[in-house]
Design goal:
The structure is a homodimer.
Chain A lengths: L9 H11 L4 E4 L3 E4 H17 L7 E5 L4 H12 L3 E4 L6 H11 L3 E5 L3 H7 L8 E5 L15 H6 L15 E7 L7 E6 H18 L10 E2 L13 H7 L3 E4 L5 H10 L4 E4 L1 H8 L13 E4 L6 H9 L3 E7 L6 E4 L11 H8 L4 E2 L4 E5 L14 E6 L11 H7 L5 E9 L5 E6 L4 E3 L2 E3 L1 H9 L4 E11 L3 E10 L9 H13 L11 E4 L13 H8 L3
Parallel strand pairs in A: 1-10, 3-4, 3-5, 4-7, 5-6, 9-10, 11-12, 12-13, 23-24
Antiparallel strand pairs in A: 1-2, 7-8, 13-14, 14-15, 16-17, 17-18, 18-19, 20-21, 22-23
């Protein structure tokens, strides 16, 4: 049969954006602007420039760059010729960053000059790298023995490709590394088909199910989740497909972000709570009109306090959830149609939840036997998923891949409840949850409630072995300066008992043991290091 | 690797609808209502009932039914177990209808009692059919020697399946027959993957790029294009995926349609111009508020007159385009963001055009050499397409399949222009276009312009062989009663010359020859039969 075997390729998203609105604009800070048509030409140049360097199907190309129009070009241009875009996380410890480049076998590294000292230092170890390309925002790039090529000169030195080639849709498109608290970084990878389906399902959800009218062709998009972090949640692909005006902010600097939001009337972003916090706390923020700005929050829990502060400024916030292994979107907090009648306060309670699965996401919350827990908002289980956009495993790591995918479901390691409205709420990480007498007790929940006591500076809760109940919770408390010596177990038990009486937690969750310390051990990214705490306190 | 191989199956759309809004309602006329959850249970019963009859992967199940909740169940339930839903067009001539059942080798026929006399008459020829199932809207089904099973009894006689099975996404899901003016009906078929991608791309377009805020979760959907006609344009699948309230109107009766639109506050429909005409001409229509009703018009050209009439009633109309071979959506008339500033009149001129391709539709307009014509709104060519949802050919008809797909592009047989805004406008069918001196002259355009002369009752334009120019247009005119004997070639040439002076057509398009007749020959579906005209007038 002569029929055309249409493959789901990233270029198809780009082609639609160009066709829909060729004159639409893309901006980079206050330094650069161009049209979709011009962007496409540069993607075709990038493809040609890569080919001229001998990059072909499967070649790994590592990128270390801030959020930029160039990164967008690389999102399409590198996978566009069948090569693999390795989005390198510059926040990794240098040794880990080197590990990822070596493990990925990157042959080309394209990096922003801000990372020149780092790359120069690591280069001797990076033996797979054949060529370095420097990105600069300045007129002349800095001198370096690493390379004589900068991105602009490089892509302008070739004739653009006629178009991007057809490839099998299962061609690997991207590679990224994720770090846990233990072990080496793990590589997750996605192919063209997966990213196209992620974009289409994401677009369907954002456009039809989203709140405040959903995403529309009139929206102006600016990512505030770095593009080196799981495809900036895939939204640059969605935004390009539907031809949105796009703003890329470079390195995140509060004043620049705010300036761009206001100048370009940005209406749609996504970020972690910390970035939103930074913006809502910017001096003089009250004088600006942010009432057209929709922001999806992920990466960590959106607290009601932060959500309210943002709401008071007019910002339309809601939560979302996903992880590096899942491309990333799994759920978005979107109000069901009947919730439109609820009062704003109750709506906000739902908009800050983990959310509801988007189309094509088959999400279950299961107990240790792999059975679905009741959808009562109480019973806890691990989130396991099937969607068409999950990493097939960890790159060159069959053992941890097997573990990730046991039983044919991707295990997120997140512990959650689901309520009768179908809303998921994450309550803990599986490794932190305390398994006691057949129940799962959320360490996060206890930590949150303990922090509400006026005398508590910081709290960590871990499970410690218990001969009768397997585990029991132990609370480790840093008291506030003026409460030192005044806090004791009885005070905190009484404090938690109030919440148990209100039904927020079960009585069973209240720890018997409390330890008071000067400070809590932290990991390199500033999270409480429970491994250290467990080593110290696990023996009763 | 233990990873789950996620296939794009229709059940995934249904599962999302259920998950999103299990209590959402579906209505059938004023006779039936139930929730998505109940619908899903009936889909699972239908699957079990089919299996009990020995229906398996690839078995063809023919359905003759009006638009109903039952048809929606069959949209999911029949392909859901791997069988093929043959949507039978009851408007076919009985001999053609019998041909399609025989050609498809349908083993089961599920039909509405309105078609009982027809089915009883044809049954003796339908030797592949093992079982007939009767659908009735009444308490007791009519007696017939054909069958003792009615749909309700049938699906209630089994235990529902636990869930719909996993299948390869390339499993055939639907089969339908399309008629041309010549030859036997042609079978077009679509698999699960195609229909899922059609739904996702359609949802992305309708939700984000659509006008008046686009499709949202608050919309109420009622099809007005029959479900036996290319999946009711695929919208029942989209609507179910995003959990819309849905209204199925049964047999189209103007009073019932209007009642349902008003009672259920329908906000989203699609239909051919004739149905819209019927509604806007309903007596007393002005007294109703139709200002929340968005209607997409396809199947034939949306004239400005009809669009304005609808607009005056508050209805939000726009055009769309597709065909049986294309699942069907190819284009939708959606305003580009910059057109928001245009005045309403100019916007309407664009909303009634054929439209712009939706995501994943690669659409070209090519001349006879297969080269793209300039996008100048003038030069004509044939629309050829590639999308992931095109029929792989005509069922059991390799010769016409080869013709349809020549050169690896699906040939629509529609002649169109594309303007600088990327809007497609169909101007003719390829078989009717007149090829003269290297130019393509649109017969449709000439017919439209000729009809604007006060003395013209009806006009047909055909190409007749010309030794110098290959073909030249010949106009065949039915004069109005009081103009008989008064119309002549010179009058009509002058009439057309005005439009040539205004640039609406080229001078070259004006026919030299005019024939005046009492009436025009028509096909069985009421279209002008140009084959007959060509046979009569082609010899100069």
């Amino acid at each position: 049969m002569p029929t055309y075997d249409y493959q789901l390729l990233l270029k198809r998203l780009l082609e639609h954006g160009i066709r829909w609105y060729p004159e639409q604009k893309i901006y980079y800070r206050d330094q650069w602007e161009y049209t979709y048509t011009e962007m496409y030409q540069r993607v075709l140049r990038l493809g040609a420039a890569l080919k001229a360097l001998g990059v072909g199907v499967g070649t790994k190309v590592g990128v270390i760059e801030w959020d930029s129009h160039r990164y967008l070009e690389m999102y399409f241009g590198i996978p566009g010729i069948g090569a693999v875009l390795h989005t390198i996380n510059p926040r990794l410890a240098p040794a880990d960053l080197a590990y990822t480049v070596i493990h990925a076998e990157d042959e080309i590294i394209i990096f922003h000059e801000d990372f020149l000292p780092l790359v120069e230092k690591l280069a001797p170890q990076l033996t797979s790298v054949r060529k370095y390309i420097l990105i600069t925002d300045k007129e002349t790039p800095p001198e370096t023995p690493l390379t004589d090529l900068d991105y602009e000169t490089w892509i302008n030195s070739v004739m653009p490709l006629e178009d991007l080639p057809d490839l099998p849709e299962t061609t690997q498109a991207t590679l990224a590394y994720t770090t846990g608290t233990t072990g080496k970084p793990k590589g997750v990878s996605f192919n063209h088909r997966q990213l196209v389906l992620h974009s289409l399902a994401g677009a369907s959800a954002l456009g039809i199910l989203g709140d405040n009218g959903g995403l529309t062709k009139y929206d102006v998009y600016m990512p505030l989740t770095p593009m080196f972090h799981v495809h900036a949640w895939g939204v640059p692909y969605v935004s390009t497909m539907v031809g949105l005006k796009q703003i890329y902010p470079g390195r995140y600097e509060p004043q620049m972000l705010l300036k761009l939001i206001l100048t370009h009337k940005v209406t749609f972003s996504h970020c972690v709570p910390t970035i939103l916090q930074m913006i809502v706390n910017a001096p003089g923020i009250e004088q600006y009109d942010l009432s057209n700005w929709k922001v999806i929050i992920g990466g960590a829990r959106l607290t009601k306090g932060l959500a309210k502060r943002a709401r008071d400024l007019g910002i339309k916030v809601s939560a979302g959830y996903g992880m590096s292994e899942t491309a990333p979107i799994l759920t978005l907090a979107m109000l069901k149609p009947y919730m439109a009648e609820w009062d704003e306060e109750k709506q906000l309670d739902y908009l800050i939840k983990t959310g509801v699965p988007i189309p094509l996401v088959d999400l279950r919350i299961v107990n240790e036997a792999g059975e679905d827990v009741p959808h009562d908002g109480q019973e806890k289980g691990e989130i396991v998923v099937r969607t068409p956009w999950l990493t097939p495993g960890y790159y060159k790591d069959p053992e941890r891949s097997e573990q990730l995918w046991r039983g044919g479901w991707l295990h997120t390691g997140d512990v959650a409840v689901m309520d009768q409205h179908g809303f998921v709420q994450i309550v803990d990480r599986l490794k932190d949850v305390i398994k006691s007498g057949g129940e799962w007790i959320s360490s996060l929940e206890l930590e949150n409630l303990l922090s509400l006591h006026p005398g508590v500076q910081e709290a960590a809760v871990i499970g410690v072995p218990d001969p009768q109940w397997d585990e029991r919770p132990l609370a480790i408390i840093v008291p506030k300066e003026d409460y030192k010596g005044k806090l004791d177990a009885e005070v905190l038990k009484d404090h938690l008992k109030k919440y148990a009486d209100e039904g927020v937690i079960t009585k069973w969750a209240i720890p018997e043991r409390y330890e008071f310390v000067e400070s809590l051990p932290k990991t390199s990214v500033g999270k409480i290091d429970k491994k250290v705490l467990r080593a110290e306190f696990a023996q009763a």
